[in-house]
Amino acid sequence: MKSFIVAITGASGCVYGLRVIEELLKAKSKIYLIISCPAFLIIKNETGITLRGKTASETEKKIQKYFSSRAIKYYSEDNLEAPPSSGSLITEGMLIVPCSMKTLSGIAYGYANTLIERAADVTLKEGRSLLLAPRETPLSAIHLESMLRLARLGVRILPPIPAFYHRPKNINDIVDFVVGKILDNLGIGHNLFKRWKGP
């Protein structure tokens, strides 16, 4: 069973993160999930889904119920003693979908103030795969320099930019294209979109 650290941060586009989790669970992966405090609010505003409980344990139960899976272990972003903060937790890597610019900047400069940033820092130092889906537009020079800094360290920068050659019929098709590209980068097979075969 493959295992991944998945984080959802406070940027618009939380549906991408939720959809990635669904697909990773279909692929029989174990997930160590971290959701930032602002992300809980954005998830509720953008999808109507309430995942946050009064405690971390209650939140985990809500998340497991929503995804109908016990293969998810949830940790709050302020729990710096959680397993993802140590390189001794063996995973295939980490993905942050979506990734706020605040989080991206913290990772780029080794700030490690939250469990998300610390887990990403550990993923980098252990030489494991790290994928970020930054969700912001337009991009300032600060954003671009931070992304370039991370890309030079081997981090996969995958902005959730849709394509239209597969002729999406609805929002789900657009979301699935981006999620499919993320799964491609993780080496996980899928049938979420039709691949380009030429005109």
Can you describe this structure?
The longest helix has 16 residues, at 171-186. Helix 6 (141-151) links the parallel strand 5 and strand 6 (156-157). Helix 4 crosses helix 6. The N and C termini lie far apart (39 Å). Strands 3-2-1-4-5-6 form a 6-stranded parallel sheet, with helices on both faces. 41% of the residues lie in helices and 16% in strands. The protein has helices spanning 14-26, 37-47, 56-67, 101-108, 115-125, 141-151, 171-186, and strands at 3-8, 30-35, 72-76, 93-99, 129-134, 156-157. The chain has 7 helices and 6 strands, in the order E-H-E-H-H-E-E-H-H-E-H-E-H. By secondary structure, it is α/β, with parallel strands linked by helices. The chain is globular and about 55 Å long. The model has no long low-confidence stretch (mean pLDDT 96).
